[in-house]
Design a protein that fits this description.
The chain is about 65% helix and about 0% strand. The protein is built from 8 helices and no strands. It has helices spanning about 1-5, 10-25, 30-50, 55-60, 65-75, 85-95, 100-115, 130-150. The radius of gyration is 15 Å and the shape is globular. The two termini are about 25 Å apart.
């Protein structure tokens, strides 16, 4: 409730929860849900890192989206999802030299939004399996971030 009543947090929480709920309606990993989930993570990252004096706007803007999300998760104490848990994404990440799940989900989102710029292997589309795995990871990161922000009182099994 403290964050909900905060003028700084209110809009970010409202948007993030809306995007989280909308993503549940289309859990098949479609383009819209993956983009919305990343937007929520980036918005939370900006507000959290700014409010907690971790970073100024200029420094935040110099980070890639994966850097912003990685920093948020680190400050919140949320471990990264391991790539080897995701069969299809792991294979693609090896081919494209993506270092972790955070890089993978942001690169997939960037390819969705900027297909003419971020063409991968001359392909603008990912398999449904890769999209589903990217959705699962993004969804998990957003849920865990929201629970941490709300000081969820129970021990959370991150696996």
């Amino acid at each position: 409730m403290k964050k909900w009543q905060s003028s700084i947090w209110h809009e970010t929480i409202k948007n993030s929860i809306q995007w989280y709920i909308e993503s549940l309606k289309q859990y098949n990993g479609n383009n819209t849900t993956i983009c919305s989930l990343q937007a929520a993570l980036e918005k939370i990252a900006w507000v959290y890192l700014n409010v907690n004096d971790c970073m100024i706007a200029k420094d935040f803007k110099s980070l890639t989206a994966s850097g912003q999300i990685r920093l948020l998760l680190k400050f919140l104490g949320i471990p990264k999802e391991e790539l080897d848990k995701y069969k299809y994404l792991h294979k693609l990440a090896k081919e494209l030299n993506w270092e972790d799940t955070i890089t993978a989900i942001t690169e997939i989102r960037n390819t969705i939004i900027h297909p003419h710029v971020k063409r991968i292997n001359n392909c603008r589309y990912f398999s449904p399996e890769v999209m589903q795995e990217a959705f699962s990871i993004s969804h998990s990161y957003l849920l865990k971030s929201l629970l941490k922000l709300f000081d969820y009182p129970y021990s959370i099994d991150w696996d």
